[in-house]
Amino acid sequence: MAEQIEGRVSSAVDAWLRWLPRWHIGTARGRTRPCRVCLGSPVATAAGFDHDVPHAVQHALLNRMRQIVDDDVDEYTARNLPLVTRELRLAEAQEARGYRPEQGLDPEFQGLDLDPEPEPGQPFLFTLAGLAGMPADAGIIPPDPTVVGGSTDSTSEADVAAAPFDPDDLDGWLLPPDSAMPTDAPLLDDPRPAAGSEHRPGPAPRPEPEPEYSDEAKAALRHEITLAGDHAESVGTSLCLALVQHRPRIAEALDRLVAPQVDELLAELSRALEQPRSR
């Protein structure tokens, strides 16, 4: 496992080094809350980051490292922990489906604020954070696929009655009053199915609620959760040991690409400040 983790860490560091030249300090802005990925992370210590390294630079690498741990734990869980895997699949099935702005981002952007700071007099028509907080099926009632013959249109009868339409548009859909009904058509009151017609199944039965877990099942699930946590800690330790070997590469990139931008920003700030008045 250690060799596999070392290969993933090396690939992640290479990707971070390819991204770092495209980062500019002018795109950074203040944060209103601490980052749960970077604050107090032992991975940042293993990488040699200090308080002078901008948060966006740290976050881009640390989030890639976190993805390595998550992928390894997911593989271990799917292979060895069936109870935890079942609970995760049930949780995923219950989540609302739809567009989620916080998903599908590159690792260097995950965890960062989605929307810019609001400007006075310039209101937003919508915000990505607002979309992320909305339920996926808000205002939409999907059709029930288990009901045979159910309408797939969510338009109510009142809407249909109030909708303006031309009676001429119904030509070809309604039979004239003097037309005779075909003799082979089944009567509405006849309970017997028409010849050659297949029996249509009724509504599917609703699934019964799952029974509560027994004490033995709860204990087994807690044991598997403990195993998953122990494996995650082991992977994190191996990852930090592998990342220490890349400290020279990380430090060289910071000195060459990040430190000059920080120095230029501080120099510009010092020129903009007013000198204290002499007494």
How many individual helices?
8
Low-confidence stretches: 138-165, 169-177
Span between termini = 68 Å
Total E-strand runs = 0
Order of helices and strands: HHHHHHHH
Helix content: 40-55%
| Average of the residue pLDDT scores | 74
Biggest sheet descriptor: none
* Approximate strand percentage: under 5%
Which descriptor suits the 3D outline? Answer: globular
Structural class: mainly alpha
Question: What gyration radius follows from the Cα positions, in whole Å?
Answer: 31 Å
Task: Summarize the structure in words.
The protein is mostly helical and 279 residues long. It has eight helices and no strands. The chain has helices at residues 2-19, 42-47, 55-80, 82-94, 128-133, 157-162, 215-244, 247-272. The longest helix is centred in the C-terminal third of the chain and has 30 residues, at 215-244. The radius of gyration is 31 Å and the shape is globular. Mean pLDDT is 74; it is low at 138-165 and 169-177.
Please name the defining characteristics of this protein.
8 helices; mainly alpha
Topology, please?
Layout: H1 2-19, H2 42-47, H3 55-80, H4 82-94, H5 128-133, H6 157-162, H7 215-244, H8 247-272
Quick synopsis:
With 279 residues, this protein is an all-alpha fold. It has eight helices and no strands.
